[in-house]
Automatic annotation (TrEMBL):
A biological-process GO annotation: phenylacetate catabolic process
Key words of the record: Ligase, Nucleotide-binding, Phosphopantetheine, Phosphoprotein
Domain called AMP-dependent synthetase/ligase: residue spans: 42-269
A UniProt-annotated Pfam family: AMP-binding_C_2
Family stated for the protein in its record: Belongs to the phenylacetyl-CoA ligase family.
Species of the source: Slackia isoflavoniconvertens
Record-given protein name: Phenylacetate-coenzyme A ligase
């Protein structure tokens, strides 16, 4: 991805005082004179930042402004290890609100919409980010937070919500309840803005069909503001990243070298305006690619493709490397398989045993044929043969947050 003059000027402006403001970067770049960074090649020689670095800086070692300029902190949603704490200045919050409002506008959402916000509030950036953008846009926020499905459906009807926001897992749970209760014709929903976890096409179509909405993928991570740094457009071919606030690189996950536009790799982000906790060449571990060329929607901001997974999502079974995206592709190609699945990996008598549970409305011989087809497709696309087991619709767990799908009990 080519750095534009405007982006590079913003980076060089940051670099003038970065080491003075940030003990974290003073240490990270102690042997580097940042004034020597004059070309894209120079920039690409700078060391990456990692989540491990931010954990080591806990609680506020990443802070690059005086305490009196920090108006808020957020923390990553991860459940393991030391949390990552990110401080925000008032300008950071305003910039985030502007980016998020831009996401809503890109999705065709206006100040006449009523936006039901189901992600969690608190230290997590999700709920408050969706609300920030909603208020900046001038739309009506309905700040429900997660869970309490009965109340969600009541408010959806009584307040005539037109936009639903949330994780794909919770959107599916709501869609299933709406279908079960025959509520679709009583709702005014027209758009869905979904983020925080990757999901397959089958799940997307189920949610769109059962809710009767057009769905937009929103992207973000706590370390880089939160959700709202990019979104899919009406073309639904990748997500535009707001390049006046964030610079994208795609690198080879093993070597760290840049890869050409169009090739898969790991997304690396640099903040261009962030004050409280600027990040330089931050490895997201998200696997994607830059989509070359201009988008038919007219937006000039670069696009990244739908995430295929994370570098730390990969599991190795029977000598085969697999990512959730590949499993979802197998599910998508299997006639009779619904969107929901779980993968169980166990070590039994010294060998790996792989079981794929998937929901299906089929029974008897039809279900057996579906199981055989899924196992054959799995072998053809991924390289190993699982035990495929069809289970009744609705049997696998649903979540109001992110759904865990791969369970590896070998270690």
């Amino acid at each position: 991805m080519q750095l534009t003059d405007e982006q590079f000027n913003l980076i060089k402006e940051q670099f003038k005082t970065l080491k003075d403001r940030s003990p974290f970067y003073a240490k990270k770049f102690e042997d580097i004179d940042l004034s020597d960074v004059q070309t894209q090649a120079d920039f690409e020689k700078l060391p990456f930042s990692e989540k491990a670095d931010l954990r080591e800086a806990y609680p506020l070692g990443i802070q690059a402004v005086p305490d009196e300029e920090v108006v808020r902190i957020h923390s990553s949603s991860g459940t393991t290890g030391t949390p990552v704490i990110i401080p925000y200045t008032a300008q950071d919050v305003a910039d985030w609100a502007e980016m998020f409002a831009r996401c809503y506008r890109t999705a065709g959402i206006t100040n006449k919409d009523r936006i039901q916000i189901t992600p969690g509030y608190g230290l997590w950036t999700a709920g408050i980010g969706f609300q920030l953008g909603c208020e900046r846009l001038g739309a009506m926020a309905i700040p429900m937070g997660p869970g309490n499905t009965e109340k969600q459906l009541q408010m959806m009807q009584d307040l005539h919500s037109t936009v639903i926001t949330g994780t794909s897992s919770y959107a599916l749970l709501l869609a299933e309840e709406i279908s079960k209760r025959g509520l679709r014709d009583k709702l005014d929903l027209r758009k869905g803005v979904i983020g925080s976890e990757r999901w397959g096409e089958k799940m997307r179509h189920r949610i769109e069909n059962e809710l009767g909405v057009e769905i937009f993928d929103i992207y973000g991570l706590t370390e880089i503001y939160g959700p709202g740094i990019g979104i899919s457009c009406s073309e639904h071919h990748g997500m535009h990243i707001w390049s006046d606030y964030v610079y994208c690189e795609i690198v080879d996950p093993k070597t760290g070298d840049p890869v050409p536009d169009g090739e898969m790799g790991e997304l690396v982000l640099t903040t261009l305006r962030k004050q409280g906790a600027p990040l330089i060449r931050y490895r997201t571990h998200d696997l994607t690619r830059i989509i070359p060329g201009d988008c038919a929607c007219g937006l000039k901001h670069p696009r990244i493709d739908t995430l295929t997974g994370r570098t730390d999502d990969m599991v190795k079974v029977k000598g085969c490397n697999m990512f959730p995206a590949q499993i979802e592709e197998v599910i998508a190609f299997t006639d009779g398989a619904s969107s929901e699945y779980q993968v169980m990996i166990e070590a039994i008598d010294g060998r790996d045993v792989l079981t794929v549970l998937f929901e299906t409305p089929l029974e008897g011989e039809d279900k057996e044929k579906c199981e055989q087809e899924l196992a054959l497709l799995f072998k053809a696309k991924i390289g190993c043969t699982p035990e495929a087991k069809g289970v009744p619709m609705g049997e696998l767990p649903r979540s109001v947050k992110k759904t865990k799908r791969i369970f590896d009990s070998r270690y």
